[in-house]
Amino acid sequence: MKFNDINNNHYLTNKYFLGFLLLFLGCTFKHYSQDKKVKDPLYNKALSLKFSNQDSAIYYFKKGYNLRIAQKDTVGAIQQLMGLSDLYSHKLNYEKSYDGYWKALLLAEKSNDSISKSKIYIGLGWLYSFYKRDKKAIEYFNKSSAIRKGLHQLKKIHRSYLSQNYFAFVCHYRTNNNFSKARLYLDSLKQVKDSYLKSSKSFYYESEFGYLASLDGNHKTALKKLYRSKKYFENSNPSYLVVIHTLIAKVFLRMNDDKNAEKHFRKSLKISETYNSHLNYKLDVYNQLYQLSLKTNRYKKAIDYLLKAKDLDHKIFGINSLENAPLFEIKDQYRIEKDKQTQLFNQQKIKELEHEDKIWFLQSILLSITIISLILFGYFYFQKIREKHKNEKNLLKEKQKLELKKQKEIIEIKNKELTESALRIIEKDEFIDSINRKLKNESGKIDVNIIKRIIRNIQGNSKSNWSEFEARFTSINQSFYEELKTKFPNLRQSDLKLCALAKLNFSSKDMSKLLGISVESVHTSRSRLRKKLGLNRNDNLEEFINNL
């Protein structure tokens, strides 16, 4: 009873999980190396020593990592860290495995390497699952799955990468005895597998399918698939036989065939010691051999297996374990570092935004001042120019008014002079007419012919009088005739003469003397002129002409 009580406590809780952790990590990294066909000599050297000389393998992984960092080859450095973390997990040094994954994840985050992140998330998910932080484990499995589905849609990765994620879910749920979900993800794994492995089999899938089949009592099917898988791994990956023999042994246990079960447990233990791999499977195997020995009353062997199991359990899970104790509290160094970086980034971003806001505020003020200054300058400048133009315009108007006034005064003076000259001509003609009348009444000694000839020379004729008047009138009123002809093109020469005399306010009598026609003719001509100008009887001819 004492042995049974000890055994039923902590050992059985973790015995199934340990095997499947390294089962997944082993096949995953084998898959990586096959897919990528790595040409890194240090990486390949480390892989070749992984099972035969693990210390040397660790040396080459570290050397390769340092070299890739020096060469600024982030992808290569991440690959070296992942290989190193996988090796530490085989050695049961989960703390260093954990640290290696986080270190790789930091590099992947900085380089935005989504493919590497998806791989690292799976490894971290297994570590969380191993320490029963199932919610966190599922979270990281889902993160990896989401990244890979997105990359596959973009045709950046092969569909086979998705099978690794489904395989992780299968193993996780199976180790937690959630067989319904394990089968669900196994079906998804099959669908993905069949899409790229139509003519060949995946013996990782076959072994899982066989193991789950034994739960339903299909032991023959289970053994058939597991033995086929064993044959395959004997040539391709002998270290994985640790897992296969363990699964076969458990199937025999379900068949109550203790002899064959013990046989395969011993084979699993031997292969694990030979290849120095899947060491955590020893814990489960020791517990199973302890149970079988106890069942057959081989108490000495039972105690031996129990002590070995207890020692190994203490090494892996013991509170005082020098290698793995820190992981019991899962010091999430990545998250702490990430939070620090995020906080620092946010603080810097806030400072940058505040600085940008200040600059923007100052720029806005300067821009506003500049715009307002330009508007005020433009307004006052426009007002000044407008005032200047207004003053110049007023000054010009004043000058024009003065010029017009001056011109009018000059014209008026000249017109007065012209009128006076015309009146003198008229007076001269009247004087000559009076002399002619007196001479007609005189007789005697005066030679009338001589006197008449003298008078004709003095008198001239009406035509010459008008020509002299018109010449002087035109020189004073230069545009008068042009405006009349423009506005009234049907005016004749005689009409123009009347207009000129009317402008000077000559009477009909004076017009007749100056033109050499009768007063009646002048009235008749004025009447015709009024009609041509379109004047009514009430319109004043002189005012009309002076207003042109």
UniProtKB/TrEMBL annotation:
<feature type="transmembrane region" description="Helical">
    <location>
        <begin position="360"/>
        <end position="382"/>
    </location>
</feature>
<dbReference type="InterPro" id="IPR016032">
    <property type="entry name" value="Sig_transdc_resp-reg_C-effctor"/>
</dbReference>
<feature type="coiled-coil region">
    <location>
        <begin position="382"/>
        <end position="421"/>
    </location>
</feature>
<dbReference type="GO" id="GO:0006355">
    <property type="term" value="P:regulation of DNA-templated transcription"/>
</dbReference>
<dbReference type="InterPro" id="IPR011990">
    <property type="entry name" value="TPR-like_helical_dom_sf"/>
</dbReference>
<keyword id="KW-0175">Coiled coil</keyword>
<protein>
    <recommendedName>
        <fullName>HTH luxR-type domain-containing protein</fullName>
    </recommendedName>
</protein>
<dbReference type="InterPro" id="IPR019734">
    <property type="entry name" value="TPR_rpt"/>
</dbReference>
<keyword id="KW-0472">Membrane</keyword>
<keyword id="KW-1133">Transmembrane helix</keyword>
<dbReference type="GO" id="GO:0003677">
    <property type="term" value="F:DNA binding"/>
</dbReference>
<keyword id="KW-0812">Transmembrane</keyword>
